Amino acid sequence: MGRPGLNRRQLLAGIGGLTVAGSFGFAALGTGADALASGADTRVRYWNLFSGGDGANMITMLDSFRKDNPGIDVKDSTLQWGNPFYTKLAMAAAGNRAPELGVMHLGRVTGFSPGRLLDPWDLGLLAEYGVNEADFNPALWKRAVIDGKLYALPLDVHVQLCFYRKDVLKKADLLGDDGRMVPVTSTTEWFDALKKAKKAQKKGLQTIGLWTNDQNFQWWFFVTFYTQLGGTWFNAAGTEVTFDTDKATQVLEFLRRHVTDGYVIPGAPTGEQFVNGAPFTWEGNWSVPVFSGAGLDYGAMPLPPVFGRQATHAESHAFVLPHQAGRGGAANEAAHRLAAYVVKHAQQWAAGGHIPAYTPTLSTDAYKKLSPQNEYVSAMDHQATEPKVWFAGSTGVLAQDLGPVVVSSTTGSAKPDAVARRMKSRLTTLLASKNPMDGTTAAQGGAVA
User: Fold this and answer.
1) For residue 83, what pLDDT band results from cuts at 50, 70 and 90?
2) pTM metric for this prediction
């Protein structure tokens, strides 16, 4: 991208405001000097942030790759989720200690100084290993392209969903003949559904889990419904805030009404209440294994299009190539092969609730039989994503800055219209702020698909 390199000292100065506890932990993850596994002639060091069920599924996929590719020794390391992971990855790339392969949330790629802290993918190599642009949702692929180069290879789309108990909805006459919740296309229909469900539910439970006190979930819900209203954030040049305070106020009032009408118990545990009989909960698709493991008769659909347009908040896990001086050769080819393999063999990943990014997987009989995954797979085609700016993305500055003010509106400590104005003011400040990774503003960052 024509920018000077970023050394480790400059990076440390730039990210002083981020979470850096234990930032030098990457030194213990291996420098490449340890012996190769028996029979291998190439090593790929791979850093990820997957724990729990996702971690177990990833290990299963890596073991399959090792079996099919005995010549490649995969050294996988799981780091702490969130800013600690991103800080370590940035420092490793700036200090020429980066692994061959990493994972990031797609929304964070723009802020990770592509061309300095990330290397672009070799499309020819990916094609050689069976992965091509045509295999992906066009909007998803476009998000991964910066300055004409692919800097992220999407693994999945993970979305916010409306989980519902079929037993309760059947009593409330909200279940269709197909065994799924009846369609809802307006705020009036949605609150009518909540009213019916409340009459049919167990006493002592909330009607819907809404994560009222969680800044991340409240932000994700806001992004969903603001997108449904056709709301925008910035102009194409990244020089002007186009945030619509009237539309934002509509969304904030909608979220707040769940509390004022008595459908939510603020602070109540959402997943637990759902397991115990609450009719609805809004959660990420990663809750699928939890609810299926509990033996519930439930469904899951994208968040309802209450403002007339299909859209539900979406993020993606994506493979990236952390910057290495002189990247290339057998190790780089092996990193491309590993990423392509995992992307193409994502049926295991789908078991964790994620929608595989590699679209041929979605047409297989095995995927079509997954429930409730087959109910919300359409969310791939109507993703509500954060703007493509350096301060966006999972656990990014945008969510940390605006999430708490959305919470203040939902919980009633601030008025929706005042919060909408505050959000626009903060967006204006962020737009003029410089990315600590490279010292550029959104307008200067070149994040143009």
Assistant:
1) confident
2) 0.91
